[in-house]
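S1.2 Input.
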Amino acid sequence: MSLAFLFPGQGAQHPGMVHTLPPSPTITAVIDESHCQLDDLDSAAALESTVNVQIALLIAGVACARALTIEHSLAPQFVAGHSVGAYVAAVTAGVLTLAEALSAVELRGQLMEQACAQGDWGMAAVSGLPTRTAAEIVREVSTDNDPIWVANVNSATQTVLSGTASALQRAADVSARAGALNYERLDVAIASHCPVQEDTARHMAEHLAQLPRREPTARYLTNTRGRVTTSAETVLDDLAEAVAQPVQWYDATRLIGELGVTCAIETPPGHVLTRLLASAVPSVTAISMVDTDFAATAGRAHKILQADEVR
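S1.3 Output.
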């Protein structure tokens, strides 16, 4: 019997994503603690900034996780965040304070924008093709002037690519010929989880190295290797390195099932991680809070966990 919290990454955002969180003393406290002006953070105009997107995702994830724990007595044994969602996972597991995470995520977003300031970059999700086929497409279309890389391995048949706009368009054409079911440009104006962000990773490692080491209170699933850790050092290394390496989300979700997780809750504004987990590990009940309210989410999770105790 184990509970996991899942935290979405960039691409899940939408205008008003923090404003529209349900009223809750805990959520209000987190927003106040963040010292952010929401009108300047989650409006449509504000979310054109990578920095604002990532800060908004951090605040929303931490607020909802704390509300589930404090107000509904749901403490996760596992935490996993996709890309910037990993910072939410680190806060939820007690490795970072919210203030430390806000500072780190702001720096991360700024560095990522700077890395892609020259040129037209982006990301796209390819669905319906094996990861090996997606990797072959990348090798076929990538050039020195228009590079493209595998950025996320989300499932056995969904791969996210990072690269220049022209390389992504060539990949779209080749993917269609290869039989892809869908090719979708993501709402991301940068290329992440690829060599473009190597300087970002280096600077993040330097920044995070200055922070105290607090051992996690929940087991953390890494982005870079899709493995579990209870080491603060490993968590911080993963936070720094992941921005320049592919996210091994498929490995992490399969491991969740192997480690005995029976229920997983994805915090707003995400629902994609829920779908990926339900597809990869049907034995785990995956719940997106976007699809239900706090009380219903908590009630369902408690029933599942209590039923597991009886068995």
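S1.4 Remarks. The chain has eleven helices and ten strands.
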